[in-house]
Amino acid sequence: MSEPLPVRNVRFLFQDDISDFDIIKISVQGYVGYIIKCDLKYPDKLQKLYTDYSLASKQLTVSPDMLSDFCSEIKNTNWKPSQKLIVNLLNKDK
Known about the structure:
This protein is α+β, with helices and mostly antiparallel strands. 12% of the residues lie in helices and 13% in strands.
């Protein structure tokens, strides 16, 4: 899935625009696109459905407790926590 990114005529919505915003009325074939900053909650019942395709990635610091058993076994001795862009099913806060 690939779509062109905007290169001009980008603007933030005014508060009145945000109050009247209805995502259901937006045409997927239209020429106007939106980037939406919001909180995202993954209900438990949807976890399995989105396992292979998470809706949003997040930059996280990977710590030892986040590693799988396999990764914990094979990591070398100089491994240290680092920031990575992670696709996961954790709830996201804006």
